[in-house]
């Protein structure tokens, strides 16, 4: 099988004001794979995700230099190209945050939200897309009889799967996840891990994680943030020891 590069990062630097967080990052993320980004706290992992879908532009003091290319519709798109609408970028490169953030509305409306933003109004189309996204996020069976309840009534693990369903509703090419299981118990985290692995045939995933065992279970490729840049770890069995994580360096 010929695996293509889905995301290419070239000479990327990221600063908040005068504080440089990332410098000269070069990395490639292959299509249909899960890549984990690991590293100690405060080293720029979340900032790296913000650079990919240009969410950094919402932070007044943030500055990014360098290039991020995403392969869309069989051609490489420079994400910073002024003619490429940021709304389209964020539809195709969705971000799921560390803490589940359901909108204050029903389960159904949460998942339908990106479709409404896209201007899709046909009820049957929306309803079908909502069900499909909830199924893909392993949540349909748990919520199919309570779709009109407030999403904030769901458990933490269900809320995170709802947020993944919301991201999937717009059928993104890339799913960025920032420590998606860090606020969940072990059982809920395992469900999300299985879910991530199952999504590989539909999109390319980049997951920031502190859990090295989790990284071993889900990641096809691993990058570690070292001295402000990304270094690939090959093979993933060469990950830093878990004792490092327990001692707080991860
Ligand atoms: N909005 C901001 N303004 C200024 N500095 C920021 C801002 N957001 C993050 N930083 C700083 O940038 C550095 C990198 O932060 P970032 O959140 O990217 O790290 P991280 O590796 O994801 O950390 P963690 O694992 O703890 O989530 C940190 O020193 C952080 O304090």
Automatic annotation (TrEMBL):
Sorted alphabetically, the Gene Ontology BP terms of this entry are:
phosphate ion transmembrane transport
Which stretches make up the ABC transporter domain? Answer: 7-250
Q: Name one GO molecular function term.
A: ATP binding
Which CDD domains does this entry report, sorted A to Z? ABC_PstB_phosphate_transporter (cd03260)
Superkingdom of the organism of origin: Bacteria
Give a yes or no for keyword Nucleotide-binding in this entry.
Answer: yes
One GO term describing the cellular component? membrane
Q: Which controlled-vocabulary keywords does the entry list?
A: ATP-binding, Nucleotide-binding, Phosphate transport, Transport
The protein's name in its UniProt record: Phosphate ABC transporter ATP-binding protein (PhoT family)
Organism (species):
Desulfosoma caldarium
Q: What is the lineage of its organism?
A: Bacteria, Pseudomonadati, Thermodesulfobacteriota, Syntrophobacteria, Syntrophobacterales
